[in-house]
Specification:
3 domains, mainly alpha, globular, transmembrane helix, two-stranded parallel sheet, about 550 residues, Growth Hormone, Chain: A
């Protein structure tokens, strides 16, 4: 019985038997709650992601790497080499959520990290480009398995008051990884041998092995355990994580009662049913457009080359300084994630990103950017600003928001599909960017500016605020901001044609939850008759199916 599962006497008996205290995680137990420790530990998966992003752009730029791989690579081959890790992550990411729903979050994160490490080892020992690309393909498969499940795990173990900040940890660690990756390559670039590019991959092997190992010591997600009907284990997990038991009783009951009967594949089907589609499409759109917002950080050295910073060491240092600036601005963004509104941050950030891209494209199109010119330094500053604004807004808000708006019974499946879309769009950007830059100095900037503006338009219409709500409360109150506005406009038009008397008694309660959105039919009542007299456009605006005679 779910009610008995979270009852105070039941928990008290467990405490008296010392079952809860004996299962505490000993690491940092006195310094911070264990749910924070678990979130930090798993966020090293984000570090791996960022480290590869920061290092690969510098590595393909190194003469030592080009020499080992057989000479200078074309723009297309460079794009293939860099983007393979994203391409092979698509299919694993798509099924990782389904497998995590069946076997548990940690049981997917650990093997995914090991697979990533195997790929990094192959890259570190490569003597030919095909072996290097195969290594990146294997790493991509591992990353597709573990990365999305890290976000889901943290969202499920974090209490309401800290969920935004902890859910931002993987992205914050990814930004940190970009910074570390750049400077790891700067520190090894002085090596005359192939160790200059091999040593950074040794670090990847070590971190991925550590991530897999730490999963052995962390408790499974209590929300997942509750959904599996494993109540006693869920209680133990809650205690080990130092989770607020009052919040668990308040929020988990509905989850257990409403969702525990769903099969794993049903969660995928639910994603695209009527009551779930708006949230699913919004989450997928946000995760995809984050990657299509601008030129990926992996090509920062190329961007600085294009702006006139031509020497390898100078462009790498400039890229490293840019990554430091991104990291520094991520700190307040991370710390204030629970204070800033998700909607405001996403919309304002998108406008700024679009404006910066438009400015850079205009400078290149006008021919003002030449080596050592004032315009070239404006471009350099714009690259810095773009990365900083992205990390403070879209980089943090996007993944948090996508995890928050998905219902618990589709959260893992939705994040899997979202991560697959993210990998796909990231692969497209990584593949076409060097080709676009080679074909046109300004075309890529105008393209990404337009995509950012389009994203802002969609967010203005469809993105509600979620800050300060529990995951379960978000599902009960989700509505699109513009929907009410359009409905009111249609209603005023209908009243102007039908007269105030026709609609005087018209009062339909607002849709509050998933079940109401799924199927709503009004029976032949006076209220239904009144609605039936309204124009079809009014009923469509309400989203109702009216049966009235």
């Amino acid at each position: 019985d779910p009610a008995q599962l979270w009852s105070a006497p039941h928990l008290q008996r467990k405490k008296e038997g010392n079952l809860l205290s004996c299962n505490k995680m000993p690491v940092f137990d006195k310094l911070m709650p264990n749910y924070v420790t678990a979130s930090i530990a798993l966020s090293f998966g984000g570090l791996l992601n960022g480290y590869d992003t920061g290092s690969i752009g510098a590595i393909v730029h190194m003469e030592q790497f080009k020499s080992s791989m057989g000479g200078t690579m074309s723009a297309f081959i460079t794009g293939i080499t860099v983007s393979t890790i994203m391409l092979t992550g698509i299919i694993p990411a798509l099924f990782a959520g389904h497998l995590a729903d069946k076997y548990g979050r940690l049981h997917l994160i650990a093997p995914g990290a090991l697979v990533f490490g195997v790929g990094a080892l192959l890259q570190a020992t490569s003597t030919k480009l095909p072996q290097f690309i195969i290594g990146r393909a294997i790493s991509g498969a591992g990353q597709g398995v573990f990365f999305g499940n890290i976000t889901v795990y943290i969202a499920e173990v974090a209490p309401l008051r800290r969920r935004g900040r902890l859910s931002a940890l993987p992205q914050f660690m990814a930004t940190t990884g970009v910074c570390i990756g750049y400077f790891a390559c700067v520190s090894t670039a002085g090596q005359k041998s192939s160790l200059a590019w091999r040593l950074p991959y040794v670090v990847q092997v070590a971190v991925s092995a550590g991530l897999a190992l730490v999963c052995r010591f962390l408790p499974e997600s209590p929300r997942w355990l509750a959904l599996q009907g494993r109540g006693d284990e869920a209680q133990i997990s809650l205690a080990r994580l130092d989770f607020d038991l009052d919040e668990a009783r308040r929020d988990f009951l509905a989850t257990v009662q409403e969702q525990s009967s769903l099969s794993n594949w049903q969660s995928f089907v639910l994603l695209f049913r009527r009551g779930y589609r708006p949230k699913t499409f919004l989450a997928l759109f946000i995760l995809s457009m984050i990657q299509l917002s601008g030129i990926d950080a992996i090509y920062a050295p190329s961007l600085f080359d294009q702006a006139g910073i031509s020497s390898t060491s100078s462009s790498l240092i400039a890229s490293g300084v840019s990554s430091i600036a991104m990291l520094l601005v991520s700190i307040p963004g991370f710390m204030l994630a629970d204070r800033w509104g998700r909607r405001t941050s996403a919309i304002s950030g998108g406008l700024l990103l679009a404006g910066i891209m438009l400015l850079m494209g205009t400078l290149y199109a006008s021919g003002a950017v030449t080596p050592r010119s004032a315009a070239s330094w404006v471009v350099v500053v714009c690259v810095f600003l773009f990365g900083m604004i992205f990390c403070a807004t879209w980089g943090i808000v996007g993944k948090i928001y996508a995890s928050e708006i998905l219902p618990g019974n589709t959260r893992a499946a939705g994040n899997s599909v979202g991560m697959a879309c993210s990998f796909l769009t990231n692969w497209v950007v990584a593949l076409i960017t060097p080709v676009l830059l080679n074909a046109s100095a300004f075309g890529a900037y105008f393209l990404f500016s337009g995509l950012a503006l389009f994203t802002v338009g969609v967010l203005v219409i469809h993105m509600p605020e979620t800050r300060g709500r529990s995951l379960e409360d978000i599902q009960a109150s989700f509505s699109r901001p513009a929907q009410g506005l359009l409905s009111n406009l249609f209603r005023r038009q209908a009243r102007a044609h039908q007269g105030a008397a026709t609609v005087a008694n018209d009062s339909v309660p607002a849709l509050a939850g998933e079940n109401q959105q799924e199927e709503i039919e009004l029976q032949p009542t006076a209220q239904g008759t009144a609605l039936a007299r309204l124009p079809a456009i009014e009923a469509a605006a309400r989203g109702l199916r009216v049966e009235a005679s």
